[in-house]
Write a structure and sequence with these properties.
The protein is α+β, with helices and mostly antiparallel strands and about 110 residues long. The chain is about 40% helix and about 10% strand. The protein starts with 11 loop residues before the first helix and ends with a helix.
């Protein structure tokens, strides 16, 4: 997959600033995907965005749950997924992580 935009972030402070910026421009229905090696800051960025958008102080990593959701305004939810241990998208479908989301969107 080719990148549309590369952003270089060198410090945790810069990552927090970037997460704060994203939290201010994201809208319902937006999807962000992050790809990178272990320890590069994907979870830190996700947690920053979720904390800023929901005012929830404790945002755990979904590494073992694979997906966690957080209440957002007007009965929407923010989904935070970690598919580190998933090899193919078909595995996500088999687990059924998004069944509730499908029901909300299509029923």
């Amino acid at each position: 997959m080719n990148s549309f935009l590369d952003i270089i972030i060198n410090t945790k402070s810069e990552m927090k600033k970037f997460g704060t910026f994203l939290s201010e421009i994201l809208m319902v229905g937006d999807v962000i995907t992050l790809n990178g090696g272990l320890g590069v800051g994907k979870t830190y960025l996700s947690k920053t965005i979720i904390k800023k958008m929901t005012n929830i102080k404790e945002v755990p990593s979904p590494t073992f749950n694979l997906a966690l959701s957080y209440p957002y305004k007007d009965n929407y939810e923010i989904y935070h997924c970690d598919f580190y241990r998933i090899n193919k998208f078909e595995e996500v479908e088999e687990i059924g992580i998004f069944e509730d989301l499908k029901k909300k969107l299509f029923y």
